[in-house]
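Final report, results section. Input specification for complex C-07:
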Amino acid sequence: MTRAATLVAATLLGAVALVVTAPAAPAAVREYWVAAVPATWNMVPNQRDAIMDVGYDPSETVLPTVVYRRYTPGWKRPLRNVPRGSSNQDLIPGPLMHARVGDRIEVHFKNLDRVYRRPHSMHFHGVGYKPSSDGAYLPGYSGRDADVEYGRSYTYVLHALRTSVGVWPYHDHSPSMEESIAGGMYGMLSILGRREQAPDREFVVVMAPMGRFQTIDGRAFVGNTPVFTSRPGQLVQWDVMAMGSEHHTFHVHGHRWVTADGTDRDTQTVGPAESFRIRWREHDPGTWLYHCHVETHMMQGMIGIYRVTQR
Amino acid sequence: MTRAATLVAATLLGAVALVVTAPAAPAAVREYWVAAVPATWNMVPNQRDAIMDVGYDPSETVLPTVVYRRYTPGWKRPLRNVPRGSSNQDLIPGPLMHARVGDRIEVHFKNLDRVYRRPHSMHFHGVGYKPSSDGAYLPGYSGRDADVEYGRSYTYVLHALRTSVGVWPYHDHSPSMEESIAGGMYGMLSILGRREQAPDREFVVVMAPMGRFQTIDGRAFVGNTPVFTSRPGQLVQWDVMAMGSEHHTFHVHGHRWVTADGTDRDTQTVGPAESFRIRWREHDPGTWLYHCHVETHMMQGMIGIYRVTQR
Amino acid sequence: MTRAATLVAATLLGAVALVVTAPAAPAAVREYWVAAVPATWNMVPNQRDAIMDVGYDPSETVLPTVVYRRYTPGWKRPLRNVPRGSSNQDLIPGPLMHARVGDRIEVHFKNLDRVYRRPHSMHFHGVGYKPSSDGAYLPGYSGRDADVEYGRSYTYVLHALRTSVGVWPYHDHSPSMEESIAGGMYGMLSILGRREQAPDREFVVVMAPMGRFQTIDGRAFVGNTPVFTSRPGQLVQWDVMAMGSEHHTFHVHGHRWVTADGTDRDTQTVGPAESFRIRWREHDPGTWLYHCHVETHMMQGMIGIYRVTQR
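Structure output:
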């Protein structure tokens, strides 16, 4: 009863609650051209854990793997792996895909994994789709969407529904899922309401183990993990998710955020394939830490720097 | 303050929010006759993991254990272990016990564990009761409720309170708790509001390790775990809980649900003895996967099929 | 949209929702004098697990460590480690620090760790502060706040903001963080709204591993963990947090509480550095168990007694 009442309260007050910042754009078709491509990945490019003052040899930190990368139409040419409006450098997650409620998203996927020649796929959370765009391997039921062979392509058709507002994972769900996710075949969708204000800064934070390290976006230890930046007055948004087999607690120093239930938090659990977005209007200049508060994870590299500068 | 405000909002709007689908039934006494009985349990009856294409020998998958089973009054005759309205086959969890707010529930429990002759008990979450119905062993304090010897019986008296709406675990909390829970001595309560609509389909999902596998209702891998079914238009309810020592993330493909805080999710953390119910009006025909998104758990069997058919 | 609506509902109804129990006190400055001091700690003073009937030798349960302890102004004299209004005995967590929204908190910290002579610090969750009071070690950026040498002191200046209502961890975040937290260098802040009612009973519950045990406030097994007590009619508050690398599920027998989203729970996940407060008006006399429902944790000692007596 209390639960239902809360939802009704939300509905009755919905018209008031809408943060109308822009006229509703007409529903769009958003096309993404993505490929699975081999990569030689260094989880610790500066070869050290600066906080514990420990060095690492490249033999411990470099890993051959396969990642999702964005391409120009027809997979003619790879695009730089830096989402617009993000502070991300070249990192493990595939392209951050944006849409608004009502949009249709078409993801044209091609398997260019010429090294391992494993099958791959894309499985999307949060959006609406028919079983033929599910991308999850189930013998006797699933089709080509779940088992895209090397050299082949497949187009996933997705719908940003009213229930899709938020941030969501996508990842490989083909027969090679286990190795592929361990190697970094994941990325995020970010869906806004029809008239919802877009953030000034949007940070992708994927918490996942990789080899012997605990990584953020495929990097371990401050100086390697992304340095997120903003200025006072900006609306910042953190897109947080986890992949793998462990639960994490995402923490940002010197800040708090309001969760959907109205409570203020500065630390929040996120388990495998869970995802949430965190927003605040920035007003705390400084060089801050963000990290997983699971201590062993923090010690294995799951920590980075968030810098708020006046200028 | 925000938190308190949310609750008041819920209260003020309560009268509007009630989904009144039936006249309030008079408060009832619900009696359940349950026994702890030995069972020889096969976690993987078809002896294979169809997705990874791996076979298992019965020597790896069969386990002698003790489970809760429903009986006719006076423990005269065991009842089939298939809750009405559920898609469950014969599975590990004890009977799904239903009540509405205001009801008194009497659970008559008998220890028929003639194989191990261990003490057993029943401890119920979510409902109101006196210490004498707690069922939890504490030397110097607890009574016969917590330590029912082989051949003995005990009646637990429980109250479905206004704070009891939802789904809840019950499980052994006697001196044999550790082995008994590992072997499957658990089940669920499902409490509706006085006038709340009952679902058309109700699925019990207990996520728990068993031997070397990660099971749903005591079964591992698609083809062994329950195949839940529904039709478009039906109100489906998933009763999800975990037992054991691990956290899980429950995920259903192609669907989202609204959590109590108003956010839409398709993946949700559930830790040991946590429980939640998920509801939606079905409208997505197809053969879908549901699974724990903790990857090692999924690979060890915590995955099943949910089928929505037009006819 | 639903999320925003809920927040607006909360805001609109805020005036009604305020539980006004006292005139707003003028904002205060709250000073705490705290030191890091060596301690020889016995996790199992009665040397036994009463539930499993197993004995332990002091060689297995005693640990030399460093803890936070409250002092009189100028660190002249240590104060008894028993927060007012709490049922805590001498336990591992440092002083429970109280404030109300609008207050300024000054924590004067001195490193008296004469045994190990490690650097130490205090990092506070939930409150507002400048980077110079962050207390977290980051080479090249952090200052003396994050690396207080033996014999030195530092004053942290904290602000109880509107977003600070609730309970929060504090802990060592210096270069010795890993060993220091494992040894118990943590405590809690409890922030009330300006006019919010203070509880009659307030219980600090820190769930953390220590050596081979899983402890509550540094103690393992019933008879060693704190015995919390209350009377019917009292407003009781549980301040729950976790430290370390594991997730827990906090459970109290025979009781339920309302979470911020309006749902009733009797079991709730808490991960490292997460924290929440639980409140209810007591009306269930009896000797009850509270424990972590992760079974291995419960078996390793994370369980205690809550006693509600009529008199």
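Chain B has five helices and 21 strands. The radius of gyration of chain B is 20 Å. This concludes the modelling results for the funded period.
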